[in-house]
Amino acid sequence: MIKFKGKGAYGAIAIGRAKILKGYSTRVKRIKVASVEGELLRLNDAKALAREQLNEIYNRARAEVGDESAQIFQIHLMMLDDEDFCELIANTICTEGVNAEWAVSVARERFSALFSSMDDPYMRARASDIEDISRRLIQCLENGASGEKISEKSIICASDLSPSETILLGKDTILGFATALGSESSHTAILARNMAIPAVVSLGDRFLSCVSDGDLLCVDGYTGEVIINPDPKTLEALKVRQSEDMAVRALLEELRGLDSVSLDGTRVKLFANVGSVREVEEAIKNDAEGIGLFRSEFLYLGRDSLPSEDEQFEAYRGALLASNGRLTIIRTLDIGADKRAPYLDLPKEENPALGLRAIRICLRYPEIFRCQLRALLRASVHGRLGIMFPMITSKDELEMSLDIYNDVKRELLESGVSVSNNIELGIMIETPASALISEELAPLVDFFSVGTNDLTQYTLACDRQSSSLDDFCDTHHEAIFKLIEMATRSIHENGGWIGICGELGGDLSLTERFLRIGIDELSVPSSYILKLRDRIRKIDLSK
Ligand code: PEP
Ligand code: MG
What we know:
Blueprint: E1 2-5, E2 7-10, E3 13-20, H1 36-65, H2 67-80, H3 83-96, H4 100-116, H5 121-143, E4 154-158, H6 163-169, E5 174-179, H7 187-194, E6 199-201, H8 206-210, E7 216-220, E8 225-228, H9 232-252, E9 269-274, H10 277-285, E10 291-295, H11 309-322, E11 327-331, H12 359-364, H13 366-379, E12 384-389, H14 395-414, E13 424-429, H15 432-436, H16 438-441, E14 447-450, H17 452-460, H18 478-493, E15 497-500, H19 511-517, E16 521-525, H20 529-536
The protein binds phosphoenolpyruvate and magnesium ion (MG).
């Protein structure tokens, strides 16, 4: 039995078998092989495995994100058998007498450079497909049949996971997450919470050298403890805690359908944070009174081209229909920093969190923004839509965003497309600048939503991705509350409302403070809603 201590990212307990997701190394070694025939056979086996994986991912993607988005995996299947690509790999193995991994990396470089140099943007984007299928092939060669195929529900162990890898894994195959790197406010941790999957991050590099595929693991998302091959007594104790935890969850069920109102009569709206249409359905099942943050950027990740207007329209309409008349706030594209979309080919940056991200990308590339706004406005007649802009730092940025929004709306109306006249507009307060000038921003919008994850990162100058800044990153720092109070005063004076959609919204030790500040809405992972309602119903602000 070995114990590791990390940081709990979602409070629940998982007990199950470990499945290691091996990272991909772009540095492949060139090795002379004794048998060229043997190497060609290995290559064939790896191709068969890659084909099997792609078919499985294709079917899953069709069910989760729709036919159009899933097409990419069909393209990958075709490219895997592309004659020129396969011929170059086989020739390299035969003429140089080298390992298949090296031959794949030679083909990857050659074809990737070829596609990247093409004028046609569609063909240029194929370079990332080459990267992707080469990566898959090399992984299949290195890991054999134990590659990334996950056939039974397992606890996923990895160095780190990107948000796109996390979505592609799919909820059905995961019992829990245990990662060596990552922080509680990284997007992977957020996804784990949204998917209600027990998760511990930041376990340190040694964790991966101690765990093997098939080990029995206990992941305790409450304490941040992960135990490899627990002894019978420890295992029994954890099983007891797991069933107690389930009993508490069952008790909370009694709060379903009740009001989120404190003992003194203060009412708070309890909304959910989601990243997909499926999560909207889950949020409603968990009794969310609305959707406070739909992270639309997840529609743009884990793929290799921008989602079309129609594809987005379908997703937004689906979200509005699923929330069945409840306010559904969709945040416009917040890509950049850790949420990378390689096909956008954005410039490399020294400090991506301080770089071109979110609204800045939308204003720099207005066609991307206009396409999303068209899809949102077309969908608006199917429910109660709210739209919010992320990462605003100035009045100019907000005015430019609103100008584009109004222009797109006018164009649609002029061409006879119906648009709801009941859309609420808001911005995220996630930079200190936006809170400090909130008096100027408030008259322009209906609501503010505080993104405490970024607000903390930018106020305290602590990278939210870093797992080693705990001593400096005080998430309860008074500066954060001062900024929230300032923004609350400004929006209330202008007749609007304010919510919190960052992770701090679900911190039960702060609920009373947020109510005292005058926060009108809390938006949290849907699995937190009943717990938070329980907390709110026990608070008495008159005391
Ligand atoms: C935030 O910054 O608090 C927020 C909700 O946005 P995200 O976590 O997606 O950056
Ligand atoms: Mg943010």
